[in-house]
Amino acid sequence: MQQSRKIYRRGMKRQGKKLQMTKAQKSRYRQFLESIKVQYEKEDLFIQAFTHSSYVNEHRIRPYDDNERLEFLGDAVLELAISQYLFKLFDHMSEGEMTKLRAAIVCEPSLAKNAEELQFGKYVLLGKGEEMTGGRERPALLADVFEAFVGALYLDSGMGAVYSFLENYVYPKIHGGEFSHMMDFKSQLQELIQRENQGQVQYQIVQEKGPAHSREFVSEVLLEEEHLGKGTGKSKKEAEQMAAQKALEKLNNPE
């Protein structure tokens, strides 16, 4: 019996202790969540989303208190949310085009950039070794934290909260031209016009604005002198792509 108790106690030690935080530390996370307009019920879920395995190992915390399981869930939730959004928004896109665009949105560099813009790196709990080697700025780590955060948001408040978060911080980038290199709207528009034998499409830059180091171009697309759409971009090509996107939306969804 005594031997069994010793084995049990050793097992409990190996399992580790529960993650503990001071009131001041928890208050810091609360303020952060409020600053990015996230409403929540279980703050511990979000703290776990920012807890790296190196921190857990160093502090001998229970291994399942790191963010890896949340990352696994968040990856699936994020893919579903983006898929649904693209499916509803771009009804002229093929399955292959949507797959490529989704891949660009959920790839590591894109997710890491989202995390950087939201300053996630400041709130990650890291072990000393990971801290010293620049873990807070490492793209792979930041992308994982972003996925874990989405997983925590889903568990805490459901898909509605995930959609709201993405509407604030991810979906606008799709419309803003950040992924325009994945969406050849000009070719799609040309194919549609040729298929319907409607005439010639023309693009023209109607405005240039902003300082020389941060120029913005406004392009207009015309079909036989009929205005179809106007778009803005950091380059003339991007502005034309955005104009073509507006034209496609108009032609595919006539009022």
Structure description:
- The protein has two domains: 174 residues, Ribonuclease III domain (Ribonuclease iii, N-terminal Endonuclease Domain, Chain A, Orthogonal Bundle); 69 residues, Double Stranded RNA Binding Domain (2-Layer Sandwich).
- The termini are far apart.
- The protein has a three-stranded antiparallel beta sheet with strand order 1-2-3, covered by helices on one side.
- Strand 1 and strand 2 form a beta hairpin.
- The chain has 255 residues and is mainly alpha-helical.
- It is elongated.
- Helix 5 crosses helix 6.
- The protein contains 13 helices and three strands.
- It is 60% helix and 10% strand.
- This is Ribonuclease 3.
- Belongs to the ribonuclease III family.
- It catalyses: Endonucleolytic cleavage to 5'-phosphomonoester.
| Alpha-carbon distance between the two ends | 80 Å
Strand order of the largest sheet: 1-2-3
CATH topology of the largest domain: Ribonuclease iii, N-terminal Endonuclease Domain, Chain A
Number of domains: 2
Radius of gyration: 24 Å
Quick summary:
The chain has 255 residues and is mostly helical. 60% of the residues lie in helices and 10% in strands.
Topology:
Layout: H1 2-15, H2 23-35, H3 43-49, H4 53-59, H5 68-89, H6 95-106, H7 108-117, H8 128-132, H9 139-157, H10 159-169, H11 171-175, H12 185-196, E1 201-209, E2 216-223, E3 226-233, H13 236-252
Antiparallel strand pairs: 1-2, 2-3
Helix pairs in contact: 3-9, 5-6, 5-9, 7-9, 9-10, 12-13
